[in-house]
């Protein structure tokens, strides 16, 4: 007695469905690879997430806040007074600091009873709340070429250019542009 066997083949409809599913899977894989590649490119070359450590930029930025910095911007445009920048700490290049630019190359900086004067003119600083005010004196000092005078907004607890001097341009590697965590701080970080 012979056993009957049925041929092992797939119908044209099943074959078409399998082919369609495979094609869809390849498209999804390609799209995910492209998206990951773009994300890596953006993070490596344009934006970088950083965590703020300390309170020297309070109330604008708080301890443990997460922000994005733009690492590419200053290749095409100059640093402006009021920009919040991230730079290598001049006394220890293994550490990064975040501060506000208060003096540009060639500016004469003078701090009298905590009030900032640039080139002899008083500069209002609405971003420094009275409770963070520091009534000390500093200067006058002329910012050297290709260097920047930086200060924290929390003046009475900031290690800044009043301590370590102006920051060379080559040490500044990004501008703070966007806060993303905690969610109640979500939004753009803009200069006054």
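^ structure tokens above, recovered residues below v
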């Amino acid at each position: 007695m012979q056993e009957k066997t049925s041929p092992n083949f797939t119908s044209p409809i099943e074959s078409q469905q399998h082919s369609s599913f495979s094609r869809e899977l390849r498209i999804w894989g390609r799209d995910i690879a492209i998206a990951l590649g773009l994300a890596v490119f953006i993070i490596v070359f344009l934006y970088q997430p950083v965590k703020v450590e300390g309170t020297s930029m309070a109330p604008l930025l708080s301890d443990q806040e997460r922000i994005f910095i733009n690492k590419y911007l200053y290749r095409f445009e100059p640093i402006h007074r009021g920009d919040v920048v991230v730079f290598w700490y001049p006394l220890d290049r293994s550490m990064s600091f975040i501060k506000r630019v208060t003096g540009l190359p060639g500016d004469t900086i003078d701090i009298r009873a905590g009030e900032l004067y640039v080139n002899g003119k008083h500069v209002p600083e609405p971003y420094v709340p009275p409770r963070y005010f520091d009534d000390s004196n500093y200067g006058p000092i002329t910012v050297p070429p290709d260097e920047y005078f930086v200060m924290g907004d929390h003046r009475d607890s900031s290690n800044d250019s009043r301590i370590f001097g102006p920051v060379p341009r080559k040490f500044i590697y990004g501008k703070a542009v966007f806060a993303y965590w905690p969610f109640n701080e979500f939004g753009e970080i803009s200069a006054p």
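The two ends are 95 Å apart (CA to CA).
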